Amino acid sequence: TGGLGIEYELPEYNLTFGLDAWDLAGHREGGEKKAHLRFVTSYKLWKKLFIRMGADDILDSERRSFFLGGGIMFEDNDLKYLIGKITP
Asked: Is 42 in contact with 50 (CB distance < 8 Å)?
């Protein structure tokens, strides 16, 4: 199966919105066939710290779920610096 996704960024508000769709043929066993759709929004708290929330499997009321999380973004230079400090 295939899928597609789109993101829209509002840098002045530190916000990103995303919508992903896959399993477009709706392959589900034992039930109505529905595509898998996920909506995600991220808010950047600081340069590298963000929170993320959204809804997964939006079209299927039995499997629909919501999530909230966060993370830290690393770039290549950050990782080189950290790895250089760890190894003797």
From this structure: yes
Angstrom CA distances, 55 to 2, 42, 49, 52, 76, stand at 20, 12, 21, 11, 30
DSSP for residue 74:
-
Residue-wise DSSP of 4-50: EEEEEEEGGGTEEEEEEEE-TT---TTS----EEEEEEEEESSSSEE
In a 3-state reduction of DSSP, which class is residue 88? coil
What pTM did the predictor assign? 0.71
Cα→Cα distances 77→46, 82, 83, Å? 18, 9, 10
- For 8-60, write each residue's pLDDT tens digit: 999 999 999 999 999 887 666 666 677 889 999 999 998 889 999 999 999 88
